[in-house]
Specification:
disordered N terminus, Jelly Rolls
Length: about 270
């Protein structure tokens, strides 16, 4: 009996670890490294050469979750185990270099690890979807596909975690092969109704999703501005008491693996201010 319980517990924890990785679209929350003062923000897509790409054929192994398939200009491609990866490329649009994400029943993300934590409370970006996954619905596992997702990942000191949280994260990290984020905010571009309330991910309660832009129309650029400190407190403030931690990583992605959708999404530069 004890052996069967142990196996069942291990399977449950392994599923939990995989759920965190799938929901976050990336694995390891990076260690913060000292960096010179000034504005901290991800590299601008507009500064990258047209033709730069990640996730091309042969560039990523979908059987290897969390593997860094490519790292260019600080952005790392993170595929998910058993899921076809997206293709990311720098393209021209109205004379500007932007990031294009091509989805074919696939899912993956580009992740940038901050060398020092951004303290500016406002995150700004632009995005556009050429099409939207049909039947997408936040909070429903079988319909958890969105034309564009922006992730902010947070680590927390052990003193702010309960014993249960520490054990769960440690076990999930061991089973996943690398640490997992303690908390993640995910902003969604969605053609469905908007909401100003956090939505718990159907994969794990360590991920809070926000419909940053609802009722979106295909082919239209949208400019977003979010106070991530306020969003973190609304989503996790009761769970993680104390000041808002600074994000340790940011990621952009899209997914059509749940519904088999194919589409393209476009991203403009991201910045903190």
């Amino acid at each position: 009996m004890a052996g069967s319980v142990g196996v069942g517990r291990r399977r449950a924890l392994k599923a939990y670890a995989a759920a965190i990785a799938a929901a976050c679209g990336t694995g390891r929350p990076p260690v913060v490294i000292a960096q010179a003062g000034g504005l901290v923000e991800p590299p601008r897509f507009s500064a990258l050469a047209v033709g730069t790409h990640w996730g091309a054929a042969g560039d990523a192994d979908p059987q290897s979750a969390g593997r860094t398939a490519d790292g260019r200009h600080g952005w790392l491609h993170r595929p998910l185990r058993g899921i076809a990866p997206n293709r990311f490329s720098i393209v021209h649009d109205a004379g500007e270099s932007i990031l294009a994400v091509d989805v074919k029943a696939s899912a993956s993300a580009l992740t940038y690890r901050f060398q020092s934590a951004p303290s500016q409370p406002i995150l700004r970006w632009r995005w556009r979807a050429e099409r939207f996954p049909e039947r997408a619905e936040p909070g429903v596992k079988e319909r958890d596909d969105f034309a564009a997702r922006l992730y902010l990942m947070f680590d927390l000191p052990e003193a702010r975690l309960t014993l249960a949280d520490r054990l769960a994260l440690a076990t999930a990290g061991l089973l996943q092969g690398e640490p997992v984020p303690a908390a993640t905010l995910v902003y969604l571009l969605h053609q469905g109704p908007t909401t100003d309330q956090p939505i718990v991910s159907p994969f794990t309660d360590r991920v809070a999703m926000w419909v940053a832009r609802g009722n979106a129309q295909a082919g239209r650029w949208y400019e977003e501005s979010r106070n991530w400190q306020q969003d973190f407190q609304r989503a996790f403030g009761r769970r993680y008491l104390g000041p808002t931690p600074a994000p340790v990583a940011i990621a952009v992605g899209a997914d059509g693996d749940q519904t088999g959708a194919s589409f393209r999404a476009l991203w403009g530069d991201l910045s903190f201010g």
